Amino acid sequence: MADAQWLAHRYDPGHDAFQFHYVDRPRHGAIPFLTDEYLGEKPPLVLRRREVVAAAPPAAPLHFLFHSAYCCSTLLAAAFDIPGVAMGLKEPVLLNDLIGWRHRGAKGPDVARVLDESLRLLARPFASGEAVVVKPSNVVNPLIPAIMGLRPQARALLLHAPLDAYLASIARKGMQGRLWVRDLFGKLIREGMLAPLGIAPDQYLGLTDIQVAAVGWLAQHHQFHRLADTLGTRIATLDSEILVARPQESLAALARLFGLALDDVAITAIVHGPVFARDAKNGADFGKDQRAQAAQRGLALHGEELEKVAHWARIVAGNAGIGLDLPRPLLG
Fold first, then answer.
1. Measured CA distances, 271 to 137, 138, 252 (Å)
2. pLDDT the model gives residue 138
């Protein structure tokens, strides 16, 4: 339990046990997500919850990169693999399990207890003095109030893509992207997050795939507005296009928010290093020009649909009182 390379990977409520995989630091850097797909088929180490919690070491400082998907969050989490300073965890499935458990009827106090213990397990330091920066999957976003309530010293970034860029990303991904937004849509319904948008349930089936994507974006944006109001100086918000355009300033400001000792030399090394020069999901070379070219290809193929849905989404946002610009920006 003193070795953070034993990743707390899953929680099994049926056996009240945690499952662990050994993931060393180079492996963290080589894979985009901490999911079964990338961790391999080796059987996990299964340990009883009570014994695990009793043996857990003191927690490291813990901070979060919450996001609404397709907004460079994986890249940003990878940037926090800084030996001696911090370690970034990219979408640990352990937190997803708690959302699934809740959807299956788990009682609130039970989920809260295991969530608290899970955060303690994820906050085991990789080296003395290091913080841990967790980037959960966006399906975990309904738990943000509980997470931040359980960890009053934690700070968080709320990262998002602009509406038009988000819709274009979904359209470019074809059927995979369209299925993903419909799956997210179903989860948001279960969490009651679509109610503020004023769209009647009998209208859901009439929405196109890109409209479904827009509704999911708006629901998460509405939540981010409320979090910015309630959490105050503990959080900051950031637009992915600003991150790409101003990476040095963004990292410096985020280091200050998280209380990390990163000077200009260290930040420059990260920005000009391999993390910002490759696709965070597949490792291929990927620069700002390629990102812009991909966006243009998407607009060329789906421009008319994207324009109409974006216009519709802005009307829905205006009727619901949801501002497209979030308060508390990380950069002025």
1. 24, 25, 11
2. 97
Q: Is 191 helix (H, G, I), strand (E, B) or coil?
A: coil
Q: What is the rounded CA–CA span in Å between residue 134 and residue 76?
A: 11
Q: Which DSSP symbol is given to 274?
A: S
Instruction: Give all strands of the β-sheet with 17-22 in edge-to-edge order.
Output: 6-12, 17-22, 45-48
Check whether 288 has a pLDDT greater than 80. no
Burial 73-90 (b: 16+ CB within 10 A, else e): bbbbbbbbbbeebbbbbb
Largest CA distance in the chain: 58
CB 262 within 8 A of CB 85: yes
Distance, in Å, from the CA atom of 187 to the CA atom of 36, rounded to the nearest integer, reads: 21
The architecture that CATH gives domain 6-320 is 3-Layer(aba) Sandwich (3.40)
Domain segments of the chain: what residues?
6-320
Q: Is the pLDDT of residue 218 over 70?
A: yes
For residue 76, give the amino acid letter.
Answer: L
CA–CA dist 272, 285 (Å, integer): 13
Question: What are the CA-CA distances from residue 43 to residues 39, 51, 52, 98 (Å)?
Answer: 10, 20, 18, 21
| Residue 96 clears pLDDT 70, i.e. is over it | yes
* Confidence at residue 332, expressed as pLDDT on a 0 to 100 scale: 78
**pLDDT by residue (tens digit) across 132-144?**
999 999 999 999 9
